[in-house]
Amino acid sequence: LTEPVDGNITVEGEAQNLGYYPAGTYHFDGETALKFMRIRYGYTELKRIDNQTIIIKALYDKLTSSSGVNVDVLGIVDALIKNNTVLTDLSPADISDLYCLSKHIKTTNIKLETLPSDSFSAQTVFSSIQNDYVFAYVPDTAKVTQYIRQFMDGN
What we know:
Distance between the termini: 25 Å
Low-confidence stretches: none
Shape: globular
Radius of gyration: 18 Å
Number of strands: 6
């Protein structure tokens, strides 16, 4: 972390107790990683997304390293989908096929990036899934397209 993250605050009389993380390097267990990813009070939603991205990238690095860690990736994905933790249009068969294909991709050819925060605007939009208005970050199509072009060009 390049700056501290404080999850030990009180919101509407309720203590959050998600931990305090000074700037530095960490090795989180699963429970601590989840607490870190849930910190949002006192920060923007984009900061919470940044924290989630840190954990996802670390998990990716762990899964693709040659450390000999044996992980049931398909079992984890299956549990996430069955518990409605992840919403996806991919079927379990699609995910299984992608996982099998991923074994043939050199990890050095994969680059993880995050769109810049100025690529989105905060808006209230109608969700047909929730049948209600929800807060959402709506992408600026021109900026996102430009960013993707630059990424594809290696810039």
